[in-house]
Design brief:
With 328 residues, the chain is an alpha/beta fold. It has two domains: 7-107 and 293-327, Rossmann fold (3-Layer(aba) Sandwich), CATH 3.40.50.720; 109-285, 3-Layer(aba) Sandwich (Rossmann fold), CATH 3.40.50. The protein is built from eleven helices and eleven strands. It is elongated and about 75 Å long. The relative contact order is 0.15.
């Protein structure tokens, strides 16, 4: 019997070993959304048109909105979402149509963990304003010397608290331990988490958020929780802004209770330039770049391509979101 011919239409950035694997399974039409300027995001109808145009039976996306009905009426043998949570895909509709959906859990864990470390050092050591001093010729700003303005505690010997012990939390844990920190963790779904949230907040010099946004985690860090943190503590959030109360964070920083904050996400993906956080020297703000590495792309490419290979071979990939479609 001849092997069925497959064509994959790929709108995700795809590279490395995973791309080689996919090319061994199918003809690949590579059309990453991120390579378009301005950025191009397709909806379900546009994706259906592209899949039909190229005669594809495999679709792999990252940020496109796989909505509507036209796409799910096509004879797709696999639908890949290059993200940990395939929330841009109508999984229920795909399942109803018998289309296997694959995801890429943990693809950006190392990248986000590295950014959390970068934010910690940037906040604690005043790297951003110190850089500005040099660039502006203000090494001796207001008659002071840099040692007066930028003294800080070393992170070695301090305690960090991780709220959420999933892939990113675990990737950050060993990095902080390698820096000489004691690491506590709170996660009701991780048996090896060390602490309750209250215990963690009371002990941690650095609190770093790594929980998913759910009804139980939305706004979980507010005025009461910031008040429980030690004087001078640093707050990091490289997950989602919905996990904390931003107004309460501003108040805790303005009062001097918190020593600083590093944030990589904002509601609506941007922060108004006149927001109080933008004027705070001990606050470092980045525009949701935690996962923005080529390695993240290589990781999700491998996970998705390996899953498709196993699926086409008659197996049951561990990253299959709807395994029930294989039981029909």
């Amino acid at each position: 019997m001849s092997t069925p011919h497959h064509t994959a239409y790929v709108t995700a950035p795809f590279r490395g070993e995973g791309l080689d694997t996919l090319r061994g399974l199918a003809d690949v039409v590579l059309d990453p959304w991120i390579d378009h300027q301005p950025v191009r995001l397709l909806d379900g109808d546009a994706l259906a048109a592209k899949v039909t145009e190229h005669g594809a039976d495999i679709l792999i996306v990252e940020s496109d909105f796989v909505t509507g009905t036209a796409l799910y009426d096509l004879p797709l043998v696999a639908l890949g979402a290059c993200r940990g949570d395939p929330n841009n895909i109508d999984v229920a509709q795909a399942t109803a149509k018998g289309i296997p959906v694959l995801r890429a859990p943990g693809r950006n864990a190392d990248a986000v963990a590295e950014l959390a470390v970068a934010l910690l050092f940037a906040v604690n050591r005043g790297i951003v304003p110190a850089d500005a001093d040099v660039r502006e010729g203000q090494t001796f700003r207001d008659g002071t010397i840099p040692y007066q303005r930028y003294r800080a505690w070393q992170v070695a010997g301090r305690t960090a608290g991780l709220v959420g012990l999933g892939a990113v939390g675990r990737a950050l844990k060993w990095r902080l331990e390698g820096l000489g920190m004691t690491v506590l963790s709170f996660d009701p779904y991780a048996p090896d988490a060390t602490s309750t949230l209250d215990e963690l907040l009371a002990a941690a010099d650095v609190v770093s958020m790594h929980a998913p946004v759910t009804p139980e985690t939305t706004g979980m860090i507010g005025a009461e929780q910031f008040a429980r943190m030690p004087e001078g503590a640093v707050f990091l959030n490289t997950a989602r802004a919905q996990l904390h109360d931003t107004d309460a964070l501003v108040a805790a920083l303005e009062s001097g209770h918190l020593g600083g904050a590093g944030l990589d996400h904002f509601v609506g993906e941007k922060l108004p330039v006149d927001h109080p956080l933008c004027a705070m020297g001990r606050v470092v703000l980045t525009p949701h770049i935690g996962g923005a590495t080529y390695d993240t792309e290589a990781n999700h490419s491998k996970v998705i391509a390996d899953g498709i290979a196993e699926l086409l071979a008659g197996g049951r990939p561990v990253n299959l979101v709807n395994p029930e479609v294989l039981d029909r």
